[in-house]
Design brief:
By secondary structure, the chain is an all-alpha fold. The protein has a single domain, classed as Up-down Bundle (Growth Hormone, Chain: A). The protein has 19 helices and no strands.
Length: 453
Amino acid sequence: MPHSRGAELRRAEQVPDHKPSNNPAPNSSPPSPIPHRRREVFAWMMYDWANSAYSTLLITVVMHYIQEVVLPGDAGPVAFAWGIGGAMIAAAVLSPIVGAEADANRSKRRWLAGTAFCGAAATVAMALVPIEPAWLVIALFVLMGVCFELSLVPYNGFLLEITDERTINRVSAWGYALGYAGGSIPLVAALLLFKYSHHAGLTDQTLLHRLCILMLGLWWGLFSLPTVLILRDRGPRPDSTEPFGRAARAAVARVARTIANIRRFPVLALFLLAFLFYNDGIQTVITQATTVANKDLHFSVGELFLLVLMIQLIALPGALLMGRLSDRLGQKAVLLGCLVVWSGLLIAAAAVEEKTSFWIMGFVLALVMGGTQSVSRALMGTITPQRHAAEFFGFFNLSGKAASILGPVQFGLVILLTGQARLAAVSLLIFFIVGGLLLAKINVAEGRRQAAG
């Protein structure tokens, strides 16, 4: 995605007082002392490739395994939705602590390795344990979700260390694009396994589900290796590393001070509040859309694979398109446009009764899904002081996860009360309305000045 001259001119207009200087202000974000090597950027993007298997197989084979094998009946959709909600709230509590500790000890790489490999191990264990007792399967399901969310804290924190203002949109968008491309491979493998395994004498549906979940864990763990082996924390290391308990207490204190002083970055605070709402809606739609297809429209597991594969393939150019548009039109304008599309899809969900209509909705969703996420991440990066990168991206995850329990819980409750997943989807509209109204009030140029000052 080439950097546009129009974006260059807009940035000059947004920061009119900027002048070249050999002595930048103490609180400004200095350029990285290490060149932005393609090797580092590629290694960073590889984690999008690695964790993409979680994103695609979670909403297909893992969802189907829990709802049709482990807990068949009405308990399955509720356990799936509430399990995701539980993982989100746990990640919300831990994300700021992980981010602050990673900043204090220059340990983003260590935290990324620990959370990624722990999540992969939990996934492998989920594939191997028996379905009884069901609580053990659900516990491993929640653990893999917590690890996935926590791994994004140091991962996103690395973004500012390998990019600058000219390249952050491009690298963020390419990271999501590589993830969408990579996520299609395990999805196709799972589809082929379900479709042709009977030729090899494999007809046990429970075994097929377990093999796909095992593949998910191995994919996540193995493809995380390039990221962990190549990326390194930048900046001076502390003279001594505090024990985790002491570091955690210090991190909590720093987080508390950051919350108390968040008024120093009012644009960032308002963005985090807006993101809290609209991202809750987005994440719930992403994780529960296949529940609508499975419960209300009676999609087979093969049709679910094909639906998500189509979304993956369309989301790839969609993410790149939104990244290009954010360079030309501005991040805020693109985000608001995406939220309007999300809202329209939820309204349409109330009337959908045919599989063909749902496929069309999935196509439109794919166009804005990756763009909404990548542009949000890039916008967060442009209004975040670089010296607080991991800590504030911890708050980015906090903003995304703290209320994320509300969407899945609300979704599950509506299913319990009405028996219709479509109405549960429509109920999520409130998150997009509130988030969009808050986002409309953000002054991005002022946010950049606050971050630099």
